From TrEMBL:
One BP term from GO: molybdopterin cofactor metabolic process
PANTHER family, sorted: MOLYBDENUM COFACTOR SULFURASE, MOLYBDOPTERIN COFACTOR SULFURASE MOSC
Organism: Diversispora eburnea
Start and end residues of each Molybdenum cofactor sulfurase middle domain: 483-533
Pfam families, per the entry: Aminotran_5 (PF00266), MOSC_N (PF03476)
Gene3D superfamilies, sorted: Aspartate Aminotransferase, domain 1, Type I PLP-dependent aspartate aminotransferase-like (Major domain)
Designated name of the protein: 2760_t:CDS:1
Residues in Aminotransferase class V domain copies: 44-156, 169-440
């Protein structure tokens, strides 16, 4: 079936969606034109639009931008543009230029790492607390805390805090920013909490406001590819200017100094926060590209609030449908990793995270699902999404189990999607400003076709009348410690294989693995079996 035919068949479902969400969805009827003109290359979440490249390359060919660490006209040109972009970022986040400054980094992770490096850790005294749902990049800060002999490195949960919005990259759950002012209440003359907000996921489809400085975070980290799709390799740390006096410059490089002695341990650093902490040459062309991305967003989408509305309508519809899917025996197909009903974007962002089960209750491996989606041209996220705290919270995979699995050979990013009968990762569907209802309908159609069982089928796992079973990770020969890594079944000769999940042992019969090459396609014309070999 061709793509356009398929879309036509979605009319009933699309009308069902539009009946409820037409006032939120689609930027007043412009979405299809936006998709056709700007994202002809796209079939998924935030991706770069076409016209940004046209205007960016035009800008680069009409103007000369040199390394800003000089005084010549092309360098001045660059400095001016870079400063304009800094101002634009502050304006986007409603931050006053006298209260906040922008430090450019390579990505959100580098911004977090910079905070760890320049934070005024007090040896044996500074505490570090992080939310269970933190991204790996944030958990990494605990090693700085450990190095400064922190007496208290603590994971906190919602219940511990019950304290403006931040978003979990795993489930899309958003936490209240009002926690910040509550944390600040613990400040005393002698000790102070500084709050870092990881806004890398949240800022892609929602607007964070830093207008109320006293109840806003001290550090905000961002990733621009997540906001705009382009440029990549550029992030930022937005930082309160008042912190300048207490932060510690450690490593220095490039143009960050006012004066330096080459042989005495003496140097004077620049005072301005960005000049002081941006070591080396800035990624100045990409910073200029950022200006074009901001222009594009304003021209096409006008205001982030429309993006928020648009993605909220889509994610709610997706949720309702996925939740409703049942196998023939009434069992739900999806285990959804969220406690929200996806209608309130203050507590839930446009991320749908889940695992799926077969009618017999066994897990469908997330890699198997991801591979099949890829073959069908659908791009989804699969894995632990750099978020071990959420794996514990939603999949019940404890730290002890992670350590045990590692000792038994399980590595991050390998092909074992089920280990010790538990999923080692999940499926994440992330929506962006340019996602359409057709994208959602294509996904739902795919998912229903392959994973919702409508009839009871003979369960091949239950076949007992065979002599032997085999499973991956089985040690075949005790002396040589050979491990069987993967079993792939090719039920139809010359067609796509099926990876047997490592948790399942597979029967061996006289001809080999049960069901392997049991069927073949015969050409009516030649009467011969079809094969990929000529
Ligand atoms: C993506 C992401 C990061 C890491 O961002 P990079 O730009 O890849 O370093 C950190 N935290 C959250 C919440 C994210 O979604």
């Amino acid at each position: 079936m061709s793509f356009s035919q398929k879309i036509k068949n979605f009319e009933i479902e699309k009308n069902e969606f539009l009946r409820e969400f037409s006032n939120q969805y689609g930027y007043n009827g412009k979405i299809d034109i936006i998709r056709e003109n700007e994202y002809p290359h796209l079939k998924g979440s935030t991706i770069y639009p076409k016209s940004v490249f046209t205007s960016f390359t035009k800008d680069l060919t009409n103007n000369l931008y040199g390394n800003p660490h000089s005084r010549n006209p092309s360098a001045q040109n660059t400095s001016k543009r870079v400063d304009q972009v800094r101002a634009r970022i502050l304006k986007h986040f409603n931050a006053k230029p006298e209260e906040y400054q922008v430090i450019f980094t390579q990505n959100a992770t580098a911004a977090i790492k910079l905070v760890g490096e320049i934070f005024p850790w007090s040896i044996g005294k500074s505490n570090f607390k992080y939310l269970r749902e933190s991204h790996n990049s944030l958990i990494g800060l605990r090693n700085f805390a450990k190095e400064s002999n922190s007496p208290n490195i603590q994971v906190v949960t919602e219940d511990d805090l019950n304290i403006l919005f931040t978003q979990c990259n795993f489930s899309g759950q958003r936490f209240p920013l009002s926690w910040i002012s509550q944390i600040k209440k613990f400040n005393t003359e002698k000790s102070k909490f500084l709050v870092l907000l990881d806004s890398a996921a949240y800022s892609s489809t929602s607007l964070l406001s830093l207008i109320d400085k006293d109840n806003s975070p001290d550090f905000v980290v961002l990733s621009f590819y997540k906001m705009f799709g382009f440029p990549t390799g550029l992030g930022a740390l937005i930082i309160k200017s008042e912190l300048n006096s207490i932060l510690k410059k450690r490593y220095f490089g490039g143009g960050t100094i006012n004066a330096i002695s080459y042989d005495k341990p003496w140097q004077e650093f620049k005072k301005d926060l960005s000049e002081r902490y941006e070591d080396g040459t800035l990624n100045f062309l990409d910073i200029i590209a950022l200006d074009h991305s901001f222009n594009f967003m304003k021209e096409i989408y006008m205001d982030y609030k429309f993006i928020t509305k648009h993605v909220t309508s889509l994610i709610k519809f997706l949720y309702i449908k996925m939740k409703s899917y049942q196998h023939w025996n009434g069992k739900s197909v999806c285990i959804i990793h969220s406690n929200n009903d996806f209608s309130n974007n203050k507590i839930q962002g446009p991320i749908f995270n889940f695992n799926a089960r077969r009618s017999d209750g066994s897990w469908i491996g997330f890699i198997e699902l991801e591979k099949l989606a890829s073959v069908n041209g659908i791009h989804i996220g699969a894995g632990t999404h750099c978020n071990p705290g959420c794996m514990a919270k939603w999949v019940n995979l404890s730290s002890d189990e992670i350590i045990k699995n590692f000792k038994n050979g399980k590595l991050c990013g390998d092909d074992n999607d089920i280990f010790d009968s538990k999923p080692t990762g999940t499926i994440r569907i992330s929506l962006g400003a340019m996602t359409t209802i057709e994208d959602i309908l294509i996904w739902l159609d795919f998912f229903k076709t392959y994973f919702v069982e409508t009839n009871k089928v003979a369960n091949i796992m239950e076949t007992n009348n065979v002599a032997n079973n085999i499973r991956t990770t089985e040690i075949i020969n005790n002396n040589s410690h050979i491990t069987l890594k993967r079993l792939i079944l090719y039920p139809i000769k010359s067609c796509h294989g099926f990876t047997i999940p490592s948790s399942i042992s597979w029967p061996i019969i006289n001809q080999g693995l049960l069901h392997d090459r049991e069927w073949m396609l015969i050409s009516i014309e030649t009467g011969r079996a079809l094969s990929q070999k000529l």
